[in-house]
Amino acid sequence: MILIVAEHSNGKLARVTREMVSCARALGREGGIAILVLGKGVAAAANEAAQLAEQVLVADSDDLAAHDPELWAAAVAQIAKEGESHAVLVGAGRGGRAWSPRVAVKLDAPLLEDVTALRYEDGGYVATRFTYLSRVTETVWADAPVIVASVKPGALAPAEALSEHGEQFDVELELPARRVEVTGRTTEKLSRVSLAEAEIVVSGGRGVGTAEGFTSLVEGLADKLGAAVGATRAVVDAGWRPYAEQVGQTGKTVQPKLYIAVGISGAVQHLSGMSKSRTIVAINKDGEAPIFKLADYGVVGDVQQVVPALISQLAEKPGQ
Ligand SMILES: Cc1cc2nc3c(=O)[nH]c(=O)nc-3n(C[C@H](O)[C@H](O)[C@H](O)COP(=O)(O)OP(=O)(O)OC[C@H]3O[C@@H](n4cnc5c(N)ncnc54)[C@H](O)[C@@H]3O)c2cc1C
Questions:
Q1: Quick one: CATH architecture of 200-316?
Q2: Secondary structure string (H, E, C) spanning 48-91
Q3: pLDDT tens-digit profile of 151-178?
């Protein structure tokens, strides 16, 4: 059995869960696919998961409400052992990164991290992943009765629903005592569309001039396109935008259909977070800016003129 640990929030599966299903289907191994849905109040996410796999294993418990790595790792390892899984797939987001190494240790399994593709060949698993700021694609191989792989969000196409819904089963877990309590939580105000899930991302750099410039130009354009907002580290360090919006090596990795870089130079650390976007548009007044080497379309011009012109063009289009 291939065990997929669902990522979900507010009753909805995260896109990476569907991407992991694509990955599992492509492996084509015997034993089927099961999706494990852990958390508190997960009925809606479990129903959605049943559209994607023949088996959905559900553990709905107060203990799993917070993403406590010790508890999540114990739960996943227990289910993987009971189901004699030969592969455990988790999303390589912050949560998955925290607990997947623990699962690997509990299962005595090799851990393939941040994979962008996975196949089963000649009795072993072959995975690819990016390294050196996404400039190098590495191929790694593992041969073991069970492997744990964390799947990079945005690397694979999301799976289509099955024609017949899978069956749901409640599972009983033997969890260790909780040793860490979440004592408070504040939510950072994010752009209206999540960066990881967005099909269009408009990102701004120091070239927008000021925090106010960022709001009017980058947010203004994003609003017109129904896009998520991203930022460079220079902008985040200047305090113009929250860290949650930072794209790049030390921020988020995004792979939208359209990435619009507004006043961004194209430092390698920024490119490593967005270079796999399908179409890249850059607006920069310096025709020699490195971003133009990567961009599919470039506008050499002042963002203060180009972006308002774009916004007003979009405003004239009905439905935009
Ligand atoms: C360890 C490490 C990790 C890092 N991680 C990240 C990361 O995750 N993400 C990230 O983004 N950076 C990261 N950086 C920083 C990175 O090296 C760059 O400093 C940063 O990306 C530059 O941001 P920028 O493009 O906004 O600014 P700049 O490099 O200053 O570029 C501004 C651009 O705006 C253009 N411009 C200026 N005025 C206008 C105008 N009026 N109209 C049009 N264009 C204009 C300029 O020509 C210039 O190209 C990291 C650095 C290090 C050392």
A1: 3-Layer(aba) Sandwich (3.40)
A2: HHCCCCCEEEEEECHHHCCCCHHHHHHHHHHHHHHCCCCEEEEE
A3: 998 788 899 999 999 999 999 999 999 9
Token pair listed for 177: 């005592």
Q: Ligand 1: does its nearest atom lie under 6 Å from the Cβ of 249?
A: yes
| Ligand 1 center–CA 249 separation, angstroms | 12
Model confidence over 205-218: pLDDT tens digits? 999 999 999 999 99
Domain boundaries, the chain: 2-170, 200-316
Mean pLDDT for the chain overall: 92
The protein residue with its alpha carbon nearest to ligand 1, atom 34, reads 207
Instruction: Tell which residue, 319, 271, 320, has the closest CA to residue 293.
Output: 271
Is there a shared CATH topology between the 2-170 domain and the 200-316 domain? Answer: yes
Report the C-alpha gap between 242 and 162 in whole angstroms.
39
Residue closest by Cα to atom 2 of ligand 1: 269
> Atom 15, ligand 1: which residue's CA is nearest?
233
Q: Is-above-0.90 flag for pTM?
A: no
Distance 70 CA to ligand 1 centre (A): 38
Q: Work out the angle at residue 158's Cα, subtended by the Cα atoms of residues 138 and 252, and round it to the nearest 5 degrees.
A: 55
Q: What is the CATH number of domain 2-170?
A: 3.40.50.620
Token pair 């073991």: residue: 144
